[in-house]
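A brief tutorial aside. Many learners find it easier to grasp structure tokens once they have seen a single protein encoded end to end. The record that follows does exactly this for Mutator-like transposase domain-containing protein. Read the sequence first, then the structure, and try to relate runs of similar tokens to stretches of the chain.
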Amino acid sequence: MGELGLGREALATICKILNMPPPVSDSAYQKHNRSVNLATRKVLEERLNDAGHRVRTFLQKDDAEILDVAVSFDGTWSKRGFTANYGVGIVISADTGEVLDYVVLSKVCELCKATEKHKSNPEKYQEWKDAHAASGLCQKNYNGSSPAMEKEAARILWSRSVDKHKFRHIDMVCDGDSKAYGEVWDIYGVCDDCEKYENMDKQSAEYQKWLKSKAHATWEREHSTSNENCHRVSKLDCVGHVQKRMGKNLIALSGKSKLADGKPVGGRAGRLTRPMIDKLQKYYGNAIRRCVDKKAKSKQEVEDAVKRMQCALYVTIATMVNDKKMGNRSIVQYPSYHHVQFHLNTQHIERDFMGGQSGH
């Protein structure tokens, strides 16, 4: 019954309906619950420790060294909306796919709520409340809003990662709109440049000037690999979330923008319809997955990988449009991803992604 979120009263009702003997008394039921809870927590901690050791084995590092690892993070709530009393945050290794740590946040304690009904003697109630809090059995461990639970969970998990596994969760895969990153990006200590420019308005003239300066190029080069003086957490986007964002932006584009004829971009055959958006979103994700270069370290290698992604996407679009035989549009598809030429009426647009020579 506990797995269903139901207690002794629900079990007693079921027993009554089935004409079965009632369950054990409430005190005995709670005693059994506590025993099961303690045993479950013990096994869980063992499994989490084993998961940490498997990450070390995968990375071929010994137990004494503090490792910089890549993880994914997400939070969830006990119910939809912004009124949930319970939330949980989970960290999963990007290398092994195993859970490394978790935290449960609660805005309420059921035992405290039940005892509040008997506040006729304030002194005894306060004495009980202090003892209850000191025992570690009070479930309430969070006082903020429900939406902010996710970033608080991230702060707790990142702040104890070194003590728990001797890991620094240095690469963080999370939702694009997650506010958790802002809570943990500097938790392991960062350099002066990161401290200064991360907190600066990204649209300010000073920040834009820094982006174009040699100092930024030096900063980028030093941070492309591990830096002993800076342990900044890097935010990485899940391909699935990037893919969804593209679909969301295309939907917005189809409803708001108009073409040269004054008619909307989407909403009719031959234009940006919802099925076409779904296809483009899918092909965009596939192009990224096909062209990811996990060994790329230098800026040039990363740029080349991005170009391959772009080219794969354009080739896919070209093939898709060509198959549709839309009007007088025609597409010439080259055998490699180096060149894609688009001919639209009398206009000629050439895109050279990988430095290939002109094909005409």
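Self-check: DSSP finds 13 helices and eight strands in the chain. If you spotted this yourself, you are ready for the next section.
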